[in-house]
Amino acid sequence: MASFIWELNCGARPITTQGNSSAILRFCTRELSKGWPVILGWRSRHGAHAALAVGIEGRRHTRRFAPHALLLLDPAESEPALASANARLELGKRKPFLVTSAAVQPVTLEGAVSIRLKPP
Question: What strands, in cross-sheet order, belong to the sheet with 64-73?
Answer without folding.
Answer: 12-18, 108-117, 38-44, 47-61, 64-73, 87-90, 97-99, 104-106
